[in-house]
Amino acid sequence: MAANEDQEMELEALRSIYEGDDSFKELGPSSFQYRVGDIGDAKAFLIEISWPETYPETAPNISMNAFFNNQISPSVKHSILKKLQEEVEANLGTAMTYTLFEYAKDNKEELMENHQPFNNVISLIGCESTSEATHANLSSKKKEKKEQLTKAQKKKLADKTDHKGELPRGWNWVDVIKQLSKTGSSNDDE
Q1: Is 47 left (phi over 0), alpha (psi -120 to 50) or beta?
Q2: 122 and 107 in one domain?
Q3: Do the domain assignments include residue 82?
Q4: Would the pTM of this model clear 0.90, i.e. be above it?
């Protein structure tokens, strides 16, 4: 049971540290993703870490099989995983998910030094005018992805909004009365 307690503590720490960080994603209570680099960055990559039941006494599972990493060659992925595995061995027995994500962030350039961006490969294969046209088409097709909502989330949102789909005035206001009563009661105690 000690491993589960360690996992709970690490889970709380990760949630606290990465709160509001768009690069971090909790896939489940023992599975996490972190995007190293910005979305438009050719050297950005995604690391997925999942904990086995006996983690942190045993190594976490580290994967780079996410679709986001399809532009990265297998040799570069293998190199990144090898370096992360060295970090795992150095930190075995301790909570290391944060350490692994931060190591990847701090060493992004070194980890991706042999990476050839997809557009460079195209210009080597075809003529430059073709690659420029392809690049222009790819960048024009890139649009900001909308967040997908479940039916329940859509229904809940529809219940909160008016006929125009807008939230009512004051939906995010702080309840001043509650705040005043809390501060008033704490002042009375002093």
Answers
A1: beta
A2: no
A3: yes
A4: no
